TrEMBL record:
This is Tripartite tricarboxylate transporter substrate binding protein. It comes from Xanthobacter tagetidis. Belongs to the UPF0065 (bug) family. Gene3D superfamilies: Bordetella uptake gene, domain 1, Periplasmic binding protein-like II. Pfam families: TctC.
Length: 340
């Protein structure tokens, strides 16, 4: 449906190098200069940078956020700290950044919830588009469509056929109403005409445990959590929800190539600043972010998270966010999903 800016691909080094050339950044960024020397001579801000992660520690957004913070710290030559502000489906941390001074010292690592929540919550204290200045995309983490091994299907086509033959009998879990994995399954239902029952949980670990014990039968599960369980035989993977196949499971087809052409639902990760942050500061932070993502060490740190690095310019990210918000507004409206 929506393609990440920069072209999400597991061949990350060539992608980042192409982006650096396209954006006009000198290839000296992160290569010809000594480590840590990137922008130290012209700091992006005058003080410590706080990168807000609007979720609790330990999840995939938090883990990616710590990689991003490390690389910004090295590239910018200033201290960068991660602050977890969890709650209300990421809205608490997001609202705090929207209210922060637009001086480049407060950033947020936004995920798919940033552009989903405007359609879920009737009263938000911020505008997900107007109250933020895009810095750049980090990348994405796809989901896997997984089932309990006892479910008698081995492909997406078989799952669709089984669901149609047994309407309403397949229960699928999610990390909560309106989460990216939940909406991935709702989109699958809408595009294929199948009837499955949603069972929301207070997080992916609880839902995953019930999937393993067959209390629920299916789920779209973040690859970070799903891949080890699939390799251990505790879950059966049918497809990946990204536009392209994953390097972690290269033989596993995508939903798009099997049952729903164009299907592409991922948890994107992007750095945003408060609206009104000076353009010079945004450009500086974007250059530092893109340079950091080009490093082989970063690629290696992202691999265990199944994260696909896909950098972007601020303008590309801005266009993506509007398109993603509008896409989910349509899906959520059609499914009648709300959060009280």
């Amino acid at each position: 449906m929506v393609t990440l800016p920069g072209g999400a691909s597991m061949s990350t080094a060539p992608v980042v190098l192409r982006y650096l050339r396209r954006a006009g950044f000198a290839l000296a960024f992160g290569f010809a200069l000594a480590p840590g020397a990137l922008l130290a001579s012209e700091a992006c801000t005058a003080d410590t940078i706080t990168l807000v992660v609007p979720y609790a520690p330990g999840g995939v957004v938090d883990l990616v956020g710590r990689v991003v913070a490390d690389e910004l710290r090295t590239s910018v030559g200033q201290n960068v700290i991660v602050e977890n502000k969890a709650g209300a489906g990421s809205n608490i941390g997001t609202a705090a950044v929207a209210r922060a001074a637009p001086d480049g010292r407060t950033l947020i690592l936004a995920s798919a919830a940033h552009t989903i929540n405007p359609s879920l919550y009737k009263k938000l204290t911020f505008d997900a588009i107007k109250d933020f200045a895009p810095v750049g995309m980090v990348g994405s983490v796809p989901n896997l469509i997984v089932v309990n091994p006892e479910v008698p299907v081995n492909s997406m086509a078989e799952l669709i056929a089984y669901a149609k033959a047994n309407p309403g009998k397949i229960n699928f879990g999610s990390a909560g109403t309106g989460s990216s994995p939940h909406l991935a399954m709702e989109m699958l239902k809408a595009k294929t005409g199948i009837d499955m029952q949603h069972v929301p949980y207070q997080g992916q670990p609880q839902a995953t445990q019930d999937l393993i014990t067959n209390r629920i039968q299916a789920m779209a599960l973040t690859m970070t959590l799903a891949v080890p369980l699939v390799k251990d035989g505790k879950l059966k993977a049918l497809a990946v929800t990204s536009e392209k196949r994953s390097e972690a499971l290269p033989d596993l087809p995508t939903v798009a190539e099997t049952v729903v052409p164009g299907f592409n639902v991922v948890t994107y990760l992007a750095v945003l600043a408060p609206a009104g942050t000076p353009e010079k500061t945004i450009k500086c932070l974007n250059a530092a972010l893109v340079a950091g993502l080009a490093k082989p060490s970063v690629v290696e740190r992202m691999k265990p998270l199944s994260a696909i690095i896909a950098p972007s310019s601020p303008a590309e990210l801005a266009a993506f966010m509007v398109k993603d918000r509008d896409q989910w507004a349509e899906v959520i409206g059609a499914a009648g999903i709300t959060v009280q």
